[in-house]
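Hi C.,

You asked whether I'd gotten around to modeling the 199-residue construct. I have! Everything is below, sequence then structure, no commentary in between.
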Amino acid sequence: MSSGRVDGPIRRPRMTPEREYELLSVALEVLREVGYEGLSMELVAARGRCSKATLYRQWENKPKMVATALYATRPVRAEEIDTGSLRGDLLAAAEQLALQAERDTSLLSGLAHAVLADEELAAVVRTVVIQPAVAHVDDFIERAIARGELPGRPTAAVFLPSMLLAASTSRPVFEGRVADTEYLKRLVDDALLPALLNS
């Protein structure tokens, strides 16, 4: 007669992509409210109606959860951009970045401070968020070379990702205004494209 006992480790159901995205969105929501230093797994678990153990199983620690949340909810999806021209690709990226600037300038500025103070967070953000983004933006350059828009790899290309991000977070400091779509498009036409075409 069977006792109903199952030998071996208990298998927990995998988190669905929808639930994962929901919890990552909750993490960013809490992050916007309390900042990185104030963020805790307890707060996210309470807001997301799950256990802390669930969060630790999925992301191991706070830095990995935050970095994954930034990547999963990013408005700039450079891997999906391919307009057929270098200018078109850069303008499309600028439009997407403007959406984030309008919503999350203070969040990004706060995270920049946290990254400088927390080596573990810095390492995870570079691996999970920055390196993939840089690689995708680099595809803009490679495609432009293949199309003949650029004769070779411009020396200014290495500055492209950081210039886009810096412009979106620094305008509120210098001018007291959000880096909106118009501003970032002017950055593309007046600074980025000339630098890429003439270096």
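If it helps when you're writing up: The longest helix spans residues 86-117.

Thanks,
B.
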